[in-house]
Amino acid sequence: MNHADVRVERVDKERVVSSRRWRLIAWVYGAAGAVYAVDRVTKAIVESRLAHHAPVEIIPKVLRFTYTTNPGGAFGLFGRAPYLFLAATLVVCAAIVLASFNASSRMLAIGLGLVLGGAFGNLTDRIVRGSGLNGRVVDFIDFRVWPVFNLADSAIVVGAALILLAGLRRAASR
Fold first, then answer.
1. Which residues touch 162 (CB under 8 Å, ≥6 apart)?
2. Active site residues
3. pLDDT per position as a tens digit, 71-108
4. What is the DSSP secondary-structure string of the chain?
5. Residue 113: which of 13, 20, 35, 174 has the closest Cα?
6. At how many degrees (to 10) do helices 82-100 and 3-50 cross?
7. How far apart are CA 57 and CA 69, in angstroms?
8. Could you read off the pLDDT of 16-57 as tens digits, one per residue?
9. What is the Cα–Cα distance from 31 to 36, expressed in whole angstroms?
10. At what angle are helices 151-173 and 106-128 packed, to 10 degrees?
11. What is the pLDDT of residues 121-158, one digit of tens each?
12. Rounded to the nearest 5°, which phi and psi values hold at 103?
């Protein structure tokens, strides 16, 4: 193999790596956009149809949709610290943006996107539903044995689990 062939082979490998990297980045931001859009739409529907109304039973004695709001974090925790949530959200989002350029698997990319979309969904609620960052997040999924939550909260939890699983899989393959 001569030097020209080696250079062509190296350029081809770099193109494949670059193409894969951009596909994974697209998964991150595609997942984030989808979560954000679905979160915003479901919250708007719930607010317009369930605010000031009785809960709607979906599965009797198991699942109902209950309109509520909370000033806290995921699942209503730590409600008296809005600036803590702003700082945490901004740090997490910045870390995800940086990590998106080095995502090594589709599972990791989707996990990062789920967390990013969920974080932005709840941050948007805080901004539009109150003064400053003291706004309240709309929640509606009520299993009756757990605090009421929303799709953004679910996306954050599922995304974090996917990130953890992707890390464990990567460590096991080394």
1. 107, 108, 110, 111, 114
2. 139, 153
3. 766 555 666 676 777 788 889 999 999 999 999 999 99
4. --HHHHHHHHHHHHHHHHHHHHHHHHHHHHHHHHHHHHHHHHHHHHHHHHTTS--EEEETTTEEEEEEEESSSGGG--TT-HHHHHHHHHHHHHHHHHHHTT--SHHHHHHHHHHHHHHHHHHHHHHHSSSTT---EEEEEE-SSS--B-HHHHHHHHHHHHHHHHHHHHHHH-
5. 35
6. 150
7. 19
8. 557 889 999 999 999 999 999 999 999 999 999 999 999 999
9. 8
10. 150
11. 998 998 888 776 678 899 999 999 988 999 999 999 99
12. -60, 135
Domains of the chain by residue range = 24-173
Return d(Cα 16, Cα 10) in angstroms, integer: 10
User: What pLDDT, on the 0 to 100 scale, is given for residue 66?
Assistant: 95
Q: Which amino acid is at 34?
A: A
**pLDDT value for 31:** 98
CA distances for 172 relative to 25, 111, 165, 167, 168, angstroms: 24, 18, 10, 9, 6
Give the residue carrying structure tokens 């919250």: 43
What six digits make up the tokens of 126? 């805080």
Q: How far apart are CA 107 and CA 28, in angstroms?
A: 10
State both tokens at 166: 């992707």
* CA nearest neighbour of 166 among 120, 114, 92: 114
**Which pLDDT score, from 0 to 100, does residue 13 have?**
57
Place of tokens 């890390």: 167
